[in-house]
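Q: What structure does this chain adopt?
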Amino acid sequence: MEKDWISKERDSLEYEVGIKKFLIYAEENCKNPNKIPLPLLSKTGRSSVGSTVPPHEEEQNADAFKSAFEAASEAAAASEAAAAASEAAAAVSKAAAAGASQAAMVCEAAYRNPGGKSGGDDYDKDSQNFKRFVADAQQPLFEGSDCTKLDSVLKLHNWKARFGVSDSAFSDLLSTVGSFLPQDNALPVNAYEAKKTLSNLGLEYTKFYACPNEYVLYRGVNETASECPKCKLSRWKVGKDGRERYKIPEKVMWYFPIIPRFKRMFKSSSTAELLIWHSNQRIRDSQMRHPADSPSWRNIDYRWPAFEILVTYNLPPWLCMKRKFMMLTILVSGPYKPGNNLDVFLQPLVDDLNVYDAFTKTFFTLRATLLWTINDFPAYDNLSGCVNKGYLGCPVCGDDTIANYLPYSRKICYQGHRRELRLCGPVFYRWMYPFERFNKVLKSYVRNRYFPEGCIAKAYLKEKSVEFCAEFSRISFKTVGLPKDQGKLSGPLSATTVKSVEEKERNEAHLHVLLNNSEVFPYIKMHKELLEKIYEVKKKTILWMIGEHNRLFADWFENKVMTELNEKVKGVSEMIRWLAGKPSFTVLTFDGYLVDGIRYFTKE
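A:
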């Protein structure tokens, strides 16, 4: 509260206003409003405002009032400080409680099956990892902060994963940010300490040693074998001196179990709802927008009605091929790719098939089937068991393959061959591009080129831990591998450009729309029958008739619809009316467009 009015003249307006403000302030902040001491009084008991008081009494009263005002101000300030301290303590207590609640939710979802179902996994509350995780979730970033240590580490780790920041750059960032915070802050000082804050929360990988010729994995009955039962090669590396390097395996497979990850996807209610999108929210109008609209998917539904296909294809179209929902399952050490015995490395995956759905709050048995594979053409050889090289290199055509040798490039060209696409749904759900981009991300994890697999495994599990914790975090932030704006599923991706087209280009576009609209099909049939009657005697070829139909149909269709409208023929839809009129020569163009969450970019 301002004190300048105390030094003003006693009969001035500023002094009177100041006293009134002080009285209001004193009444609002005193313990008992009925007993407020007023030292600035005359001996007659009347207020000195507006009255005549001897100079020495006025000075005494002024000094007494000033002392009382300062005492009241100090008491009020102390009261406000106590209230602020109490609020700060309550906020810290609230943040700690929220952090504890968050830690409990994460650990519950990560380790334990809800509902007390027997046979579920549990976590050790006495373990050092669990204690450290709970402590970090309860500890404020600094005194008085609403943000906990876990919240800050989650957000910073997510930023690191999104932009591919190296550990050294991340350590420098932590050091810089920490220097701006109070000295008692709990922010990790480097990347190593930040990694320890986030344990893997139950996500693990298993290393299986493999035969150099890929005949067996050393698991099950062969777990303790020292050599391959089929080719008799040693399990261990052999040095230049011919001696075995014990405990240094010749070939290693890193396996990331899928069951814990499937369980976690269903532990999050928001993700669990998305995983049944294909069943509950998909549009069913015979149009092929999603793999669930394909004949292969419908065949599974028909043959096994109680079977739900449990892969990321369950997700909506705008999330199917995103990085967050791609699963690294098997990582095989080099230097050469797996050969025809690829099924050996798939054994742990096949063996891994009771899961809880957090959205429907029910348990169900997890089932899976292999619909199709996405691979490059060399890998097609290994997966299909067919030769894909030479003159009979097409696995679909087989002996009927038509191939030509190109002498200058010394390559074989297969012409006139196209795979059946309708069987598997929209083709962009089987493109290699998203997986190639994902492989680039995995390769960027490598920090030690002598042990690339270990670098990839550690960094991948850390990223998945961050994504999982973010599902239960009190603070909201965009996790890596998701669209920037999930609320926008359709619309332009750039500014509008007005473009003028020539008549030939306009007519070709109009004809293409007419020939591919189901409501126009009856008119197409009528026009073809008309042409057949006109040229019945001349016996024109089919190719000529198709060309004539394409040349005349748009004008004929416009006149036909106008005649039906004038004659008030019933059944002419609004769509037919719009299609009959030819489009404008001026069109709006965009550099890109979003359709059902899929981005399409145009070419010049």
